[in-house]
Design goal:
By secondary structure, this protein is mostly beta strands. The chain folds into two domains: about 1-130, Jelly Rolls (Sandwich), CATH 2.60.120; about 145-260, Jelly Rolls. It contains one helix and 21 strands. Strands 2, 4, 5, 6 and 10 form a five-stranded antiparallel beta sheet that branches. Strands 12, 13, 15, 19 and 21 form a five-stranded antiparallel beta sheet that branches. The radius of gyration is 19 Å and the shape is globular.
């Protein structure tokens, strides 16, 4: 068995304004292929004021005694650098005391109740790993050489998403080596959703589009993946972006890790 980085998310569209008493449920469906083990939780917007609770529907087990302020059990992006164009967000998730496993083909219910008196879209992402069978493709092999490397989004480093539109990018890894992704950093001028896929093996990295700030870190606070993602040499990493800002949006993503030479 080995761990492969994956993200499940819960979206509360227009979470009703309230006083933290009336909860709205979102059911996260776990894929049928493998168990999911999550270790980190992060949410958007940073201004959210909500109480949340989690239930593993396999046996109806709650992960907490009662509801909690989302700020005490979830992390957010941190803009630790001076604002720029584009701005690099820091990735500071809540890290669970130990990983929690959820069975395949089951559901995980996330409940939220606003207490700010305002309505907003609340996006929560659970970072962890799919527990895949067999040995990890990068372990148990004698690599001729291992060296650090970074694959940027494009030769210019950025792409532009049209206002309220979408854009796609494909990053081809070099033919001389496999690549083990361990961190993600980047920047953006506006909010957007991101989906990532290992195109060669047709493996998604997440169950749905993830808010940029729930996925990408900066040089000070990168997204250190809960487990690596292995990319076969010469294989493309496919990305799709959807703008949420309503304006032309410049984005940059860097995949940081190790080149593995056979």
């Amino acid at each position: 068995m080995y761990r492969e980085y994956y993200i499940y998310s819960a979206l509360f569209t227009a979470l009703p304004a309230g006083s933290g008493v009336t909860f709205t449920d979102v059911e996260v469906r776990i894929d049928t292929d493998y168990e999911f083990e999550f270790t980190k939780t992060i949410y958007q917007p940073v201004t959210a004021r909500a109480r949340v609770r989690y239930r593993d529907d396999t046996g109806g087990r709650f992960l907490m005694k009662g509801s909690q302020d989302i700020r005490t059990i979830g992390g957010t992006a941190l803009y630790s650098m001076a604002p720029g164009n584009p701005t690099p967000p820091g990735f500071l998730p809540f890290i669970w005391p130990r990983p929690y496993k959820i069975q395949p083909a089951t559901t995980f219910t996330v409940s939220a109740a606003d207490f700010s008196g305002l309505s907003y879209d609340l996006r929560m992402s659970f970072h962890g790993s799919k527990l895949r069978g067999g040995a990890a493709p990068w372990e148990g092999r004698k690599w001729r050489k291992i060296e650090p490397y970074v694959y940027p989004l494009s030769t210019t480093g950025t792409i532009v998403i049209p206002a309220n539109g979408s854009a796609s990018a494909s990053i081809a890894t070099d033919n001389d080596s496999h690549f083990l992704v361990k961190r993600i950093t980047g920047a953006r001028t506006g909010a957007c959703l991101v989906t990532i896929k290992d195109a060669a093996r047709d493996r998604q990295w997440m169950d749905t589009g993830v808010h940029f700030d729930n996925l990408v870190g900066n040089g000070q606070f990168p997204n250190i993946l809960a487990s690596p993602r292995f990319i076969l040499r010469g294989s493309p990493i496919a990305l799709t972006f959807t703008d949420l800002s309503g304006a032309s949006n410049t984005v940059e993503i860097n995949f940081e890790g190790e080149k593995l030479y056979e």
